[in-house]
Amino acid sequence: MLKVVLVTGISGSGKSVALRMLEDASYTCVDNLPVRFLTEFIANARDEGLERVAVAIDVRSPGELAELPDVVTALRAMGTSLRVIFLDASTATLVQRYSESRRRHPLTDRLQRGGTAPSLTDCIALERELLAPLRDQEHVIDTSDLTPGQLRAWIRDLIQADRAPLVLTFESFAYKRGVPGDADLVFDVRCLPNPYYDRNLRPLTGRDEPVAAWLAGFDLVGQMIDDIAGFLNRWLPQYTQDTRNYLTVAIGCTGGQHRSVYVVEQLALRFADHDPLLVRHRTQLPDESA
Hints:
By secondary structure, the protein is of the alpha/beta class. It is 40% helix and 18% strand. The strands form 2 sheets. The protein has a 5-stranded parallel beta sheet with strand order 2-3-1-4-5, sandwiched between helices. Helix 1 packs across helix 7 (148-160) and helix 9 (219-241) packs across helix 10 (259-270). The chain starts with a strand and ends in a 9-residue tail after the last strand. The mean pLDDT is 89.
């Protein structure tokens, strides 16, 4: 069966990185495809015997984005294996990326009035408005504090996961960088004992045995993990019945290095029988690719 990945989202959020990763994974990739050609492109790919195709669609396709949610629904109703990945980032991050790249936002000309160019934040705000219907119903990855290597790894893990049943993701993050926009459920573990204040443990992470053993020595830590796991065991069937395809459970601590990482790893062990299961750490750990 033909597998289709549709990459969309906010300009500057990493779609080119995602598309290159999919190309490396042997997907036939097309960038900036007009919405009106999506159904025809998929039909031709199926006729040609292709197994995997990826398409990037964003605000560079003028006047058609409003039709995209209905097109996606219709394609799935016809039995198309279609996965939509929506990439997003905070406005502050997007402004910084545009400043570094010195590129113009694709909506600049469309918003220009009387010879006056719109601000970058105005362009981003309109883009969010145009893409809101897609963001609300598809899988979102917030790339605000991700390196290109992390984003590539996350995309790779996602496309390797089956579409059904629900893809369960445990994700650690640092509150000092803000709550990730792709989180469905958020649990705050900053109330737990902090290994950071032990000089020997400070340079390590929650995946290292000394930190794990230290945290496991506190009953409070085990109780927190039990409570989160109990909540998920109780409500996960309801999320599944709600026809969700993805559920991202974000665990946050101050720096995203010790407590949240440990709790995510322990939860992943508790839910190891759930397939597909993904584990992500927003703070780049030493053995992750740059």
